What does this fold into?
Amino acid sequence: MIKVQGLSKSFGKKCVLRNINLEVKDGETLVIIGSSGTGKSIMLKNIVGLIRPTSGSIFVDGTDITKCSKTELHEAQKKMGYVFQEAALFDSLTIEENVAFGLKTLTNLGENEIKKRVIDCLNMVGLKNVEHLKPSELSGGMKKRAGLARAIAYEPKYVLYDEPTTGLDPIMTDVISDLIIAMRQHLKNTSIVVTHDMKSAYKIADRIIMLYLGEVIFNGTPEEIRNTDNAIVKQFVEGSSRGPIETDRTFREME
Amino acid sequence: MTNENIEKIAKARRLARKTAKFSFGSFYSFLDGLGLAAQRTGETFFWILKGQIPIKSTISQMVEMGWRTFPIIFLTSFFTGMVLALQVGTSTANLFNEPVYVGTIVGFSLVLELGPVLTAVVVAGRIGAAITAEIGTMKVTEQLDALYTLGTNPIKYLAVPRFVACILMLPLLTAMANIIGIYGGLIITTNTWDVSSAIYWSDVLDFMEVGTFLHGFIKSFFFAGIIVSVACHKGFSTAGGAEGVGKATTSSVMTSLVLVMVSDYFLSALLMALGID
It folds into this structure.
């Protein structure tokens, strides 16, 4: 289980996250929605240990990764896979080497096992005969899928997705959503997905939270969010330009 | 005092306050950057001393830094040697009616100064820029974050092989630059000044001692350390997309060049004081 307690993050005077409290139960898929600049990606990066919070705690299976030793943090990170917004595949390596990277650094598998696992993972995300290509030779959707294959290759308990469908066409978006569901069924992992795409959110989420100006303003099931009376949540879900959400500011300074 | 004057004084005060704040901010960020660079270099040494050197990556960096830089080192040092011989020959011919000590001056200039410094300049421009651009691009495209999430320390994976390769290859390139430059001088001395090659070689070698070679060699180690530390630090500190990568690369090359030139004087003075010259 991942538990976030009183998490706040500031960059200088900019307070991006404010007293966030949430729990992600094992096997659950939590979707985080919210306007651009509300701190969704920052929250994911805090959870995976890429950024240290200004205050608060993050527990991964009981270990507070904000206060633990480097070894404990490393152990906690082994349990997490991270799918980056722009895939973040290593340019200088082939797709096979990219997917095998985590297997080499985080597991004790032999060369043959790694090779087999790489092929399996690439097949799982629908990529065939791309092992020897460089990331620059793939399309946007293929890169995202390769990034997903890299993140799940070492079978992490938790998979964190940072806007996995942004910039993709509707069909590819649906393919990625199906993949996230398939990953969960196949690997029984817990997922935290940051997205703007409500169609995808409804499809994959067990629970949805909405961040607004660095705070959680909604926490409920997809059904509950559909029927909410909260004007801010309603405006975001309906994708309307009229409403209480300030559309002229995407990154607000709060002091 | 009129209202207009009061307004002007208030404006000047505001400007003075802003300027003081800006200077303090710049100084603070300079110190911050210096501390961060020292920390990263320290971490690089830590992994090297621990013996955690990625061999495959280090070898490929050595090929890139050594073999692929050699042609440009060849050209620059060869022509530097030639122009030195031409200038020295002309000057000494004007002064003494014959070109004398051409080999001595060419040899000393190259081995003590021009060899190490010119090689460092070429390496800073070619390798330093490439290191910063590569690491900087990885930073802005979240590849460094990806390394971290895959259980890999970016300093160990990226900085260590580049550091080791540069420390090993720059002195080697410097030695080659010295030899090639001296041969460039030989061609001009024998062909333009009709001085025999035996005289040229005796001029080159007669006054040189082990310390002379050591002087340039030691400096090239320090230059390598400066170039690769600056390049890696600038790469890891890159922010702001493609524009940020461009700025970081320019800053990396300029900082390296300035530090090489400044440290050249102090290192030379120190080595001379220690009797290594």
Observations:
- The mean pLDDT of chain B is 92.
- DSSP finds nine helices and no strands in chain B.
- The radius of gyration of chain B is 24 Å.
